[in-house]
Design goal:
By secondary structure, the chain is α+β, with helices and mostly antiparallel strands. The chain has nine helices and 23 strands. The chain has a six-stranded antiparallel barrel with strand order 3-4-7-6-5-8. It has a six-stranded mixed sheet with strand order 13-23-17-14-16-15, with helices on both faces. Strands 1, 10, 20, 21 and 22 form a five-stranded mixed sheet that branches. It is elongated, with a radius of gyration of 30 Å.
Amino acid sequence: MSITAGSLLNSVPASQKQTLQSNYLDLAGTANEGWAQQYLPDLMEKEAEVFGPRTISGFLSQVGAEEAMTADQVVWSEQSRLHLSYTGNVNSATAGADPGTGVSNIAQITIENDIDGTSGFTAASHGIRVNDTIIVSNSDGVFKCLVAVVNGAVLDVLPYGQSALSANTTADGTTILVYGSEYGKATNYVTAAGTTNTTDARGANEPSFKSFQNKPIIMKDYYEVSGSDASRIGWVEVSTELGQSGYLWYLKAESDTRARFNDYIEMSMLESEFAAAASEVPGATIAPSSTLNTANSAGTEGLFAAIESRGNVTTGVTGVNAATDLAEFDAILAEFDKQGAIEEYMMFVNRSTSLAMDDMLASMNSYGAGGTSYGVFNNSEDMALNLGFSGFRRGSYDFYKSDFRYLNDKATRGGINTAAAAGAAIRGVMIPAGTSSVYDQTVGQSMKRPFLHVRYRASQTDDRRMKSWVTGSVGAATSALDAMQLHFLTERCLITQGANNFMLMK
C-alpha cells in the first residue's frame, strides 16, 4: 500500500533523515488513523497502553463546526420570544376609575419579570398596552382580562368573567400572557397613561434581542528532547503514489504531548469559565455577565458554564427506578417544549446514565423503535451506529445517545465526578442538532450557524486554529539550544448558541 502525501498526511517525505517540521509523522492525527499498524507493527509490542487509548472521544468533532475570527471577542444577538408573557402578582390595592369608561377598575397587576426570569429585566419596559387582552393565571384560577390603564409596571385590568380578582401578592405568583386586543367602534389608540389621544400613541413593540459574547483563549504547550537523546527518533521509509520516496520521522513522547494538547483543547471548551470580577486571576478586571467588553477579562465560557448560566439543568434519570426515570425524562421533553421546536438532540452521557436510559427504554419495550429519523446522520442508522450512537424517539423528539469517555475516565471528569459533592457531578449533556439564526455583530448580518461551534483566531498572515513548529539546534538549527523543542498553540473559544435549548445532566 502506498501513501499519498498531502491530504492524507501532515508531512512530506524527505530525501534525507532530517528532523524537519514538514516531515514529522503525527500518529495522533485522525488523518493517519491505522497507519502505525501497517508501518510500525512492533509499536504496541514495545509499549502496552494499559489505560486504553487515553484520549477523549472527539466530542467537538462530532457536534461542532469551526469558523475563523479576527476580533478579540465574538458578539452575537439572539432574538427574544415572539409573544409577550410575564410573571408578577395581583395587588391588594384597589385601582382607580377607568379613564375610558368611568367604571371602577377591578384589579391591579404588577409586572415583576419576563416569563424566563431574565436577569436585568426592567419591569416598566414590558410590551403590554392599553386595550390588550390578557390571560391572568395564578393559584386562584385562569382569568381573561382587558387592560384599561398602563402605568409603568402596574396594569389596571377588567376581568371578562367576574367582578373581582383575588390578591396574590407573592412575587412572581401570577403569569400574564397577551393574547390579543379589543377596541370599540370608531376609536383611536390610547396612551400608556390611559388618556385618549388623537394620534397613534399606542407605541409599537420592537423585537428585543439578547446579546451574548465570548472571547478566545490562547493555549500553549511544547515537548523538548535533548540533542543527545534525539537518537530516539524513529525513521520510516515511505513511497508515495507519485513515485517519490523518502523518510518520515516519528517520536513517541512527542506524539503523546500532541495528543494530550488536543485533549486539553477539547476539555477547555467544555470546562472553561470567565473569571469573576473579584477574582485574583490576572486580567479579571471586569464582570463578563454585565458587559460585552470582555477583551481584557480572563477565561472563556465553556459549554458547561454556558448551559448552567443560560440553559437548562436536570438531576433526573438516575437509574434508581425505570418508571421514575421515564417520568423525569418526559419532564425534560416538557421543558424543551417550552423553549422551542428543536426535535433532534445529541446526548453525551456517562456510563451510569447511559445504562439508566437503556433500562428506562427497555421497560417500555421500545428501544430504537418509534421511527427514529437519524436526520443528523444523513438518515443513516448505520452511520449513527458506526459513530457509537444509538437512536430512539420519545414523543416528537429524536435522540442519539453516546457514551462520553470524558465523563467516565478516572483521569478526566470521571474522577472529578466521583469526588464531587452531591448534585455537582456532571453526568451528561443534551445538545440540539442543526442550526439557528443569529445576528452576528462581528460580520454585521444575520447568519445560520450550528448551535454549538468553535471560533478560532485567524487572518491572512497567521492561522491560529492549531499551530506547531520546531525550534532548537537538532535538525534544521534555529537557535543555540542543544535540544529540539516542538511547540503547539491554539487561540479559540466555543460558541453556545441558543443555550435555552441545551440540557445539562447533573
